[in-house]
Design a protein that fits this description.
about 10% helix; 3 domains; flat; six-stranded antiparallel beta barrel; mainly beta; six-stranded antiparallel barrel; Elongation Factor Tu (Ef-tu), domain 3; single chain; 4 helices; about 375 residues
Length: about 375
């Protein structure tokens, strides 16, 4: 047997062992030699003059490469789309070329109910199997919509994290609440680093959040109400226009510097069925529903008490379930949630399937 053949068999055996250990689908096959490296793909060998091409190294991920070269790890789908020979973003191979001349443009602020965005959680390293995200057929799909992330809520520990506040409005003499195209005045200006063209999320303080089971203090819920743009800035004040509104905006709402929040992409997951036993992975709770609604249904944003420290990432899915009221009886499967954003001690997601109304205090289990 030739040395090349032995190497090929060894690579397949190692890949199969990794997949078996992690309980996921195997990598793309068959591998074949391209140049001096093994790959399951047919990467291009020639590129137009001036094309920026990066050679994938062992340990690389599209996530890390997007962070290094595009300045934002959530832009990794743009790298994937620019390199269509890569059939599965979770499997990239050392030695394969990666075209890097991706035009990165600032996300346009469009009406949030109508403009979906793209983005995702972290894809896997070269030659490594995905730990959580299932490998599916075809292209991944957005887990939710722009409104699901831009019009939901965040959890903070200290009110002082918000630098500025809406203090007045052009039409304050005739209305109490404001929406798109209304002009408002904020208490930050050039001395505080504000300049024309800056954008801010508008947030409303909702309430302090207690854990539904332990009753421990989790932080303060702030609801995202919309986005404003600075028209002009004075020394300590600025004149701004509201460009997007999720709900009526009021004087006293606070501001957070605007950064685009991509909606993660993910492959579809197999639904958890009633007869499926617990998988032994980390569990948590639903701790907040949009607008404190008593019942959440399919398509509604929710917040859970698992976050970065627990290894949760955008694009992941969790099973919704409820403990049976009768001790010793099987759990009640409620549906699934797709994770949208992840913070310290919490994550937000959207209910992608609900078999019955979802309540605060219902359980989640990582898939």
């Amino acid at each position: 047997m030739s040395r090349i053949a032995r190497s090929f068999i060894l690579m397949l055996a190692v890949a199969g062992l990794v997949a078996a250990q992690q309980g996921v689908s195997p990598p793309p096959r068959p591998l074949h030699m391209v140049g001096s490296h093994w790959t399951p793909y047919d990467p291009p060998q020639e590129f137009p003059e001036g094309t920026r091409v990066y050679t994938i190294q062992k340990g690389d991920t599209l996530w890390d490469l997007a962070r290094e070269y595009l300045g934002d790890p959530y832009l990794w789908p743009q790298l994937w789309e620019r390199n269509p020979y890569i059939k599965d973003s979770h499997w990239i191979y050392p030695g394969d070329p990666l075209v890097m001349d991706v035009a990165v443009e600032e996300q346009a602020v469009e009406p949030m109910e109508e403009q979906p965005a793209e983005g995702s959680g972290e894809p896997m390293a070269a030659e490594e199997a995905p730990a959580e995200v299932p490998i599916g057929e075809g292209m991944p799909q957005p887990v939710g919509t722009t409104a699901d992330v831009n019009c939901f809520a965040i959890l903070v520990q200290d009110d002082s994290v918000f630098p500025f506040t809406i203090r007045s409005a052009e039409s304050a003499h005739m209305q109490d609440h404001y929406s798109v195209s209304n002009v408002v005045y904020i208490d930050g200006g050039t001395a505080e680093g504000v300049k024309a063209g800056d954008r801010f999320f508008i947030l409303e303080r909702a309430r302090e959040l207690e854990h539904p089971v332990s009753r421990a203090k989790m932080g303060i819920i702030y609801r995202r109400m919309g986005i404003l743009k600075v028209l002009c800035a004075q020394e300590h004040t600025s004149i701004c226009e509201i460009t997007d509104a999720c709900d009526p905006i009021a004087i006293g709402d606070v501001l957070q510097p605007y950064e685009p929040i991509p909606v993660p992409l993910a492959f579809p997951v197999d639904p958890t069925r009633r007869c499926d036993p617990p998988n032994g992975k980390l569990t948590g709770y639903i701790v907040y529903t949009k607008d404190d609604l008593l019942n959440a249904a399919t398509g509604m944003p929710v917040m859970i008490d698992l976050g970065k420290a627990e290894g949760v990432y955008p694009g992941q899915f969790v099973t919704l379930f409820r403990d049976n009221e009768v001790e010793g009886m099987p759990r009640i499967i409620l549906g699934e949630v797709g994770i949208l954003t992840v913070g310290e001690g919490y994550a937000t997601g959207v209910v992608t399937r609900a078999l019955m109304p979802i309540h605060v205090g219902d359980r989640v289990e990582l898939k």
